[in-house]
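Second attempt. The first submission of Protein kinase domain-containing protein had a stray character pasted in from the spreadsheet, which I only caught after the job came back as garbage. Lesson logged: always re-copy from the clean sequence file. Corrected sequence (349 aa) follows.
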Amino acid sequence: MILQFKCERLHYILNTHYIVSVYNDKLTIGNKSHPKYEYKFTLENVLHWYVDNLKLQAFGIEYKGAIKFFKANNKDLEQLRGLCRCLLCFDNIVELYKQIDINEPSRLQDQISLQLCSMKVISQQQLLIEVPIVRQLNHHGIISYRECFEYKSQYYIVTEFVGGITLQKFIIQNPKLSHLQCRAIILQLLKAVKYLHEHYVIHATIDISHIVYKSDFIKIIDFSEAKQTSKIDDKDIKNCGRILFYLYTGKEYNDKDLELNYKTLQSAQTPKLAQELIFIMISDNNVTVPLILEHPYFSFSLDAEERKRRFQKFQRVQRSTSEMDESDAISQSIPELQTNKSKSLRQLM
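This time the job returned cleanly.
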């Protein structure tokens, strides 16, 4: 048991007092010796909230076709909410978030903590597959999920606020990236992929539109096709190779014309070690991320004059990206969130 607190079920004549016990996989409601209700932590179950004046006043569970609400102390309910984030789908919490940009409805502010966050629409099927994978991850190069909720028969995921722009847009704005930038970006990406593979997760669709770039840092933001598996294949590594090819050339890797790929890399003055690494990642079916990170590409040094020239170019690119749009990361058409509280807590209970 990780949390226990008192709650009250309101009735028109006599109220009933219970104890809520929270475990890793469920919560129970009842007296000390015998729980009357048990609610499993699964995303197919919905935890309903009653919010008043931006404070949680009660929670509700579905029981025999009806929603039963239980009133409790706000601090206890906030703890319950924190423990259940992404373990259960929430309902009736839209008023805890405020849309702060009419031109970017996916940018939100938590009305209690005042933290910025983002939101994206997701299908129920995606919810059941994607959230269990991402909620276990904790890496600076991977987006984190705050909680998920249902609103007007639509499902939403609230994520950390990333800002910046997609790597795809960054490359379009800056078609001639320096060697230092290319190496820094792919190094961060490979370390994030290494973390995923260590946790038996295959992303499967890593590309420049699924990565956000901001102030030299990158973050993977889309896990819609990810899967949990004990058998790690080479799909993510090949995709990273294609991304490195694009970073140097600004063009897509051609799976059908190897000679054209060589010419494209050479015309872009791609370092030989970078060319070698790209073809290893794309062609070698047995290579792993740890082996890739040992490649000389990540440790070789340029001569002093070349370092100076590329650093100056790097500074010019940095200045050109200092005024980037901060809201390009997770941009979707999000409907306006409105609260329609038509019943009092006692009426609901």
